[in-house]
Amino acid sequence: MYFNSIDFAIFLPIVFSIYWFFKSQYKIQNLIIVIASYVFYGWWDWRFLLLIIFSSLVDYLVGLFLIKEENRVKRKLLLWISIIVNLGLLIFFKYYNFFLESFISAFAFFGNEINPTSLNIILPVGISFYTFQTLSYTIDIYKSKIEPTKDFIVFSAFVSFFPQLVAGPIERATNLLPQFYKRRIFNYNKAVDGLRQILWGLFKKIVIADNCAEYADWIFSNSTSASGSTLVFGVIFFTFQIYGDFSGYSDIAIGTSRLFGFNLMRNFAFPYFSRDIAEFWRRWHISLSTWFRDYMYIPMGGGKGGVVSRVRNTFIIFIVSGFWHGANWTFIAWGLLNAIYFLPLLLLNKNRRNMEVVALNKLFPTFNEVLKILFTFGLTVLAWVFFRAENITQAIEIIFTIFSKSLFSVPHFFNSGNVFTLISLIIIFLIIEWLGRNSEFAIANLGLKWNKVFRWLFYYSIIFVIFYFSGEKQEFIYFQF
Amino acid sequence: MKIFFYKIVIFFIPIAIIFSIIEYKLRIIPNNYSYKSSYLDRNAEKIEVLILGNSHSFYGLNPSYIEYSCFNAANVSQTINIDYFILKKYLTKFKSLKLVIIPISYSSLFSFIEEGKGQWRIKNYCIYYNYPSYDVKNHFEILNGKMNYHINRITNYHFQNKGDINCSKLGFGLDYKFKHKLNFEVTGKEAAIRHTKENINNTLIRSKQLLRRIFDDCSLRGIKVVLFTPPAHRDYRKWIDEEQFKLMDYECKSLVKESSNVYYYSYFESDKFEDIDFFDADHLNHRGARKLSVILNKLVIKKINNE
To answer: Which domains, and CATH codes, for chain B?
Structure first.
C-alpha cells in the first residue's frame, strides 16, 4: 500500500479510529498496530508476510536466549545466527542475481563460459529497512544496551510498524521499543503536527518528486542523444526527485507515527543546504548513516587510529552503504565517489565544522556560505549521476557529455512551458524549505501564529497545489531498496 | 480527541464538496464509453456484427463498410478480459448477433488493461459499464488523471461545448487521419518496445482461458468469431520480438483448431497496406481502415452465409 494511494487514504482513518477507540489499553493498541501493519504490508503481496514473520520470530527468540546466556561463545553464536539469517535473506532476495551475473562476467573475462541458473526472485518491499532494524535489536541486546522484550506482539509491532516499515526511518530498538510499553495519550497538538508533516510530505512526493521524475526519466533514457545542458537539467531534476521522494516518504511516515502517539527519529534535515559533504551526510538519510556509524564504523575503529585505518574504514562504510541501496555497480561507484569527497575532510579534521544549521537566526546566508552550499550541491549532483544511471558506462558518458561544448546549448525541453512551471515550483519549494530550516520539517512552524482562517487557507492552497500540479504517479524510489 | 475529529471533519467538508462537484461535472461530459454503453443498452438487439478489441480495431474497422448491422465496441487499450466482460454483459440482449470480430495484436495475448500504462482507463468501464473492481480509484473520474486535465475537460465542455466523444455513431474512431500522421520510425520503435512483454506465460494462460470462454458462449448461441491480426508498418515490425510474435500466431492458429465457429486471419505483414494507409506505425488511418473493413466485410459475408 502506497502512502500516496487512495487505499491508504481509506486505511489510515479506519486504523486511526479503531486504535484510539482503545485509548487506555496499550496492549490492544499494539495488537491493532501489528494487524494493521500486516494488512499494509500484505497489500503488495501476502507472501512477503511469511518473510517478515519469520525474521521477527528468529530475532525475538535470539533476543530471549541472549539474555539468559552468559557464556561468551554461545552469546556470540546466537548473535551470528541472527546476523546470518537476516543478512542471508537480504543477500538471497536482493543480491543473488547480481553476484551470479558478476561471476558469469568474471569467468567470461578469463575465457570460461558458465551457465548457472538465475532465479526469478521478487524483491520483498522494504527488506533492507526492516532487516537493519531487527539487526540493531539483537546487536543492542548482545552489547547489553537494551533488555529483550518478552512480548512477541510488542516485538512484531516494533519490526512491522507500518508507517516506517518499507522505507524507514530505520528505527533503533532503544528509541522505538520502549514506546510500545507506554500508555499512549492522545495529544491534539502532536496529531495536528503529524497531519502537517504528512501534508508537506505529500507535497514533496506528488508535486516535486513525481514531476521531476517525468523529465529525469525521459532524459536518462535518452541520454545518448541529449546535449550537455539537457543532461545537467536531467541530473538536477533527479536530485530533487530523490530528495522529494525519499524525504517526502519520511515526512509522511513520521507524521503518521505522530497520529498514533509515536516519535520516530528524524531522517532528513535539509541536506541540500549543507556546506560540505560531511554535513550533507549528517543530514541525508540520517537513520541509515547513523546505523552504519554505530554498528560498523565505530566497531571498526571509526575515525581513530592511523591514516590507513581511517581511510580503509571510510571506504568500507561508503561502499557498503552504496551496495545497501541496490545490487548494481552504479551504487558502489556512488558510494566510492562519496568516500572520495569525504576523505579530505576527515583527514584534515574538518568533518565536524558545520554542525549548526546554515545561517542560524539569519534570513540570508553569507556569500561564502552560498558558495559552499553550491559547491556541495554540485558534488552531490555529480554523484547522483552514478546512482541514477543504468550502468557505469552510461554514467561516464553522461558526465563526459555534460562537460562538453553542448553544455552551452539550449536544453532540449525548453520549448515546453511545463518545465518552467516545474522550475518555479522547485524555487518555491526551496524558499519554503529555507525559511523552515530551523524546524524539524519545513512547515512545522510556518503559519502557527497566523489567524486560523489564513492558516487553513495556507493548508487548502497546499492541497490545491498537490492536486493541480500532481505529476504522473511514480513508485517511491527507496521501495526498491 | 473529539475536537480533533470535529475539526478534521470541518476541514475536509469544503474539499469533499469541491471534489463531488468536479466528479459530477466530469461524469456528465459525453465520452466514448458512456456513448457506447448507452448505444449497446438501446440497440443490442439489432446488432448483427460486433467489433471488440483495442485501438487497432477502434481506429481500424469502420462499421459503415460492413453490410450488416454492425457496431464497433472497441476502445483504446481494451484487452481481452474487457472484451469478454462486454460480450457477457449484453449476450442475452444480442438477439440478432451473428458474428464477433476480435483483433489479436502482437501484444493482445500478453497484456491486460490492469497491468499496463492504460490502467487508468479501467474507471471508464467501472463507471459507464458497471465493470466490477474492488479498487476504489476505479470508481471515480477525479481519482484518475491530473487535476489540470480534469479542469480542462470541464471547461471545454461547459464553456465550449466540447465533449470527449471522438467516434462515429457506429463507434469507429475518428481521430486518425492521414494528414495528422506521425513519424513511423519513432512510433514504430516506441510501440514495439512497449508491446514486447516479459513474463508472458501467466498472461497467455489467462488470455487463452478468456478467449475459450468467448468462443464457447458464442458457440452456444450460434455466433461466429473472427480473430484477426491487424496490419503493422515495417517500422513497427522490425522492432518486435520474433519469439513473442510466433507464439501469438501459433496460439491463435491452435485456438481456432479447437472450435468450429472460430476463424483466424493475419494481416500483420500484408502487402495490401502501404505507407499511405497508416496513421502511425501500428495504427491504420481512415483510408487504411476503409481498406481493412472492406476486406473483413467480404469475410463476414462469407462466414455468415457459411460459404
So the answer is: 2-304 (3.40.50.1110)
